Amino acid sequence: xxxxxxxxxxxxxxxxxxxxxxxxxxxxxxxxxxxxxxxxxxxxxxxxxxxxxxxxxxxxxxxxxxxxxxxxxxxxxxxxxxxxxxxxxxxxxxxxxxxxxxxxxxxxxxxxxxxxxxxxxxxxxxxxxxxxxxxxxxxxxxxxxxxxxxxxxxxxxxxxxxxxxxxxxxxxxxxxxxxxxxxxxx
Length: 186
Prior knowledge:
Blueprint lengths: L1 E3 H8 L3 H9 L6 E3 L2 E5 L7 H22 L17 H17 L4 H18 L3 H25 L4 H27 L2
Antiparallel strand pairs: 1-3, 2-3
Helix pairs in contact: 1-2, 4-5, 4-7, 5-6, 6-7
């Protein structure tokens, strides 16, 4: 879309004289057509807020493409909403099994990891992004508590399970939470 000098000045919040100066110094691309300056709308510099909005839209687009093409595709090409295909769920199940086998089914870390896996499943299948955020936030808190309990336990192997949760599951949950919160909006 082509703008006149006056239109560009209004959009930039500057005077026409200031816009002419930007053109003359090469900081704003413009053409002279029939003796008048014409500026392409896309050539105008973005305000800080416009830049952030453009970055958010780009990130949302990347997320949508990754979600559409990511691990949630079936072999026949259709999307799948199976929790077992979620990396966060997979990252919870392994440490839960290892903790269960090492410390038993009644140990607090085992129960917290089991509940975290359940919250991930609930978040995957919830419809509203606000509800998804809540489930993923709960799962992250439970996993973080399980890490502390595993580090504090002191038995051989417990610390390694805690490190696995901290290195794999917690970053996965943070990513899910960020994505859900971005879609939830302000």
